[in-house]
Specification:
By secondary structure, this protein is mostly beta strands. Among the domains are: 40 residues, no CATH class; 59 residues, no CATH class. The protein contains 2 helices and 11 strands; from the N terminus they run E-E-E-E-H-E-E-E-E-E-E-E-H. The termini are far apart. The relative contact order is 0.04.
């Protein structure tokens, strides 16, 4: 037979309460197939234990760490009991402002997680959006297939792309550094000798290629220095320019020009044979 207990005010049931109205010390057991609470349920103890096999929650969102009133100072998340193994945990680390997943020796009563062994998280092999996490399989496939495009950007924001089929080689022993300045100039400073270099070319239109020793040092050439034929006689200025053309009266084909010598006229160096013949002829 159904029974209803009604009261016009608050109704308190205490088990083992003291004579002074203190809190109960014993257990109240509701023994029924189902207990329904139409109103709100507030549990104000220090621990709530649910022994059911399946927990079903209608709410769209779950809030943990409810009474935290400080900004970004408390860790919070979910612990997964792994029996005799370390607990698995997925939580927000307030000290680093990031989510972490892994295993820890802590249990759920801890206030701050101070040790964690980061674990793996499995995601779809191929991301479908730009902000999706990429799997190792996807990254490996992109690298081996030449799917990545790398760009080197200078101060003027112009990008020099390196795509499939191109290679970038930066070789050096130690202390390799770069400094970019306008317009897109990259300076490599090495504390080691450059080796295996077969050609150095300036890509600037009609630009100079400068070899400069440090301080009072010299540019030293240990092997044969070859001069290719000049397309035309270079313009004379206050520096001496040495170049090769078809041999003339000097018999060498090696010329120099300087605006301070012979009024800037082109001069051919004279061979020993030509010099000897000229000395005999002039007596």
């Amino acid at each position: 037979m159904a029974k209803t207990l009604k009261t016009s005010g608050n109704y308190t049931v205490q088990a083992g309460a003291g004579y002074d109205g203190g809190s109960g010390t014993n257990t109240i057991k509701l023994d029924a197939l189902r207990v329904r609470i139409p109103g709100n349920l507030d549990v104000e103890g220090t621990q709530t234990t649910i022994n059911s096999q399946t927990l079903t929650v209608e709410d769209q969102f779950l809030e943990v760490n409810r009474n935290n009133s400080t900004a970004g100072t408390e860790d919070s998340g979910l612990f997964f009991n792994q029996g005799t193994s370390n607990n698995a945990v997925f939580y927000y680390d307030a000290s680093t402002n990031e989510f972490q997943i892994g295993t820890t020796t802590h249990d759920a009563s801890v206030a701050t997680i101070s040790n964690i062994t980061l674990g793996q998280i499995k995601i779809a092999t191929t991301p479908s959006l730009g902000n999706h996490a990429a799997s190792k399989t996807y990254v490996d496939a992109q690298i081996s297939g030449g799917g990545f495009s790398i760009g080197f950007r200078g101060d003027d924001s112009a990008v020099v792309p390196v795509t499939s089929g191109n290679s970038v080689h930066i070789a050096g022993a130690t202390n390799l550094s770069t400094a970019a300045t306008e317009p897109d100039t990259v300076t490599l400073k090495l504390d080691s000798d450059l080796t295996n270099i077969t050609s150095i070319t300036s890509d600037a239109s009609n630009g100079n290629l400068t070899l400069k020793a440090n301080g009072t040092g010299d540019i030293v050439i240990n092997d044969t220095l070859t001069f290719s034929a000049a397309a035309s006689t270079p313009a004379a200025n206050t520096v001496t320019k040495v170049y090769h053309k078809t041999a003339g009266g000097g018999g060498t084909g090696l010329y120099f020009i300087n605006s301070n010598i012979s009024s800037g006229a082109e001069v051919e160096l004279i061979s020993k044979k030509k010099a000897t013949a000229l000395a005999i002829a002039l007596g």
